[in-house]
Specification:
49% of the residues are buried. This protein is an alpha/beta fold. Helix content is 43%, strand content 13%. The protein is built from 13 helices and ten strands. The structure holds zinc ion. The site of zinc ion (ZN) has 4 residues, from loops.
């Protein structure tokens, strides 16, 4: 008989849950997703590519497989003239996730995201529309047996509320995260307040994902940690956002914006992501991960910084074996030691 799997809550009680995201950006780099629409047609066109990346993230220590249903709602699917495949794509994404998760005894998360449909001037009408979009996706996730549902990259508090309500109505645990383009939601609620309200309304985990990199997400997380009582999520992009450009959309090279196609020179190192994971844990954050720009080597470094041994740790750096660098203590070796401490 298969071993009974623990749910998200049991994992959170035991320690930090590591969650690899960033599928859309990584699969775009690999040639399977169109930058612009970012609709994950890859799920139906090249399911093997999704399964492969999922496996890589799992080998590198992700405790969760996030089903690739980000931007796979009917509205987004219709933008690439694929709305009739919405159900098929959502279900296939969850099947891929479950198949890989079963091999590694990992959790499976359903995934919904910002819809771009909320309109505060037409609140009632847009709420109804979003409810319909979310209900459809969450009902498929429930049907196929996910462990919980993530609602992510949210900008409006109002939309986050709808997402939570829908996830709860299907009896599933909810992880709700905002994409912080400023310190407030688009509808003017300070992010720590928005997180607190969602937590009080029954979200299991609240927090931030996307937009901000490891260098700029921490101050906001500290505020959220202070304000909320429960579990907090922190999934930065793996880009070097900075004091001047606090989120990846603002990053510039030679005074020109580089988002989203010219971000490569700003990719964070594995050490930076590992340090972020350690700091987050110290701050009392129980749900840590990567978003856009994140790759398997980031995930492994973060896992090891959190004290986990991953299947891919067999191939973690050992520069003492390098024919040239092995002879002297390089900066890399020092850093490797630092994050393993
Ligand atoms: Zn992201």
């Amino acid at each position: 008989m298969a071993k009974q799997k623990n749910g998200l809550l049991e994992h959170l009680r035991k320690g930090v849950v590591l969650c690899a995201e960033g599928y859309v950006f990584e699969l775009e780099r690999r040639g399977y997703v169109t930058a612009g629409s970012y609709v994950p047609q890859v799920v139906l066109e090249h399911p093997d590519a999704v399964a492969e990346l999922t496996k890589e993230f799992l080998l590198c220590g992700s405790d969760v497989v996030v089903a690739l249903t980000y931007y796979a709602d009917k509205k987004k699917m219709s933008s690439v003239k694929q709305s009739s495949s919405t159900e098929k794509l959502n279900k296939e994404a969850i099947r891929i996730a479950k198949k890989q998760a079963d091999v590694f005894n990992a959790l499976v998360a359903g995934n919904i995201s910002n819809t771009w449909a909320y309109n505060s001037e037409k609140a009632e009408e847009s709420t109804k529309k979003i409810k319909g979009i979310y209900s459809e996706q969450v009902s498929w996730a429930k049907q196929l047996g996910v462990d919980y549902v993530i609602a992510e990259t949210l900008g409006y508090y109002a939309e986050a509320k709808i997402a939570l309500e829908v996830i709860k109505s299907y009896g599933l645990p909810a992880v709700i995260t905002f994409s912080a383009l400023s310190n407030k939601t688009f509808d003017g609620v300070p992010l720590e307040e928005a997180c607190k309200k969602l937590e009080e309304d029954g979200a299991l985990v609240v927090g931030l994902n996307c937009a901000k990199g490891p260098m700029t997400m921490m101050p906001l997380l500290k505020k959220i940690r202070k304000t909320c009582k429960g579990y907090i999520a922190a999934l930065p992009v793996a880009y070097r956002t900075n004091k001047t450009h606090q989120n990846m959309l603002g990053l510039e090279e030679k005074k020109k914006k580089v988002f989203p196609l010219g971000l490569d020179p700003f990719v964070a190192t594995r050490f930076e992501m590992a340090r972020f994971a350690k700091k987050a844990k110290k701050l009392g954050i129980n749900y840590v991960g990567v978003c856009c720009g994140g790759a398997p080597h980031h995930v492994r470094a973060m896992a090891e910084a959190l004290g986990k041994k991953t299947l891919a740790s067999k191939h973690s750096p050992d520069l003492s074996k390098h024919p040239v660098l092995g002879k002297k203590k390089t900066n890399d070796q020092k850093l490797t030691k630092l994050w393993k401490k």
